[in-house]
Amino acid sequence: VEMPTVIDLHKQRWRCHNCYHTVSAKTPLVQPNHTIAAHMTERIMKLAHERLPVKTIARIIGISASSVQRIIDQNLKLRPARRLPTRLCFDEFLSTHGMMSFICLDADSHRLIALLGDRFNRTIKNFFIAHYSLAERPRVQTVTMDMNAAYQAIIHEVFPKAQVVIDRFHIIQLAARALDQVRVQALKQLDDKHSRPYKIMKTNWRLFHQTAPDAKHKQFQFGLNEDVTQQEAIDIALDTEPKLKQTYETYLALHDALMVKKHPAELA
What we know:
Helix content is 40%, strand content 15%.
């Protein structure tokens, strides 16, 4: 750990006898209106390059973690890739101050292609047009993304030969939400709130999202308060609700077709 050093710096002001303007003396040690030495920025960026946590860097340098993060953000300049890969991934994430930012990755190597401060179509479109020529952009064959219809409006305009591919995770997520909706509807139609199917669908709803439930080992199921296997608990609920059973089987078939990479014909 380095020894923190405090510089007691006194500034001197000078006055011009001709124009009567005043100026302050400057030093290369500290930038104007700053209290952290200038050479600390280089030291912080070297430590950040070693992938040290922000709190660890702050402890080594002797300043607050927020100051370290601010210096990293101010000096970190991401350069776009020189050449576009044939397959891209589009997504957004929650960044600072509650803002949604845009990220683009190489679908094969997961290498960062672009990181933008917002996710507006105008910003994304201007970035790719400004950094990549019209001869370079047709190299992109596919763009994998979620179901955000806003991105689809500019993909073919920016990448004329690209095909839009919906990410498998978002399709499974949408199917899981539909399964939950059917399960909640089945709950509302049950009159006996103390029945075994109701308890399973109410308390043990996570079982319906398991694609390979345990059918051999019995365990205590809270809510049901019985020792049954996961598959037995699911069957108790599905045997009384045909619509839920059909939806559950469709969910499993869709999951296997997308995540296990089986052809739907193999599941018949």
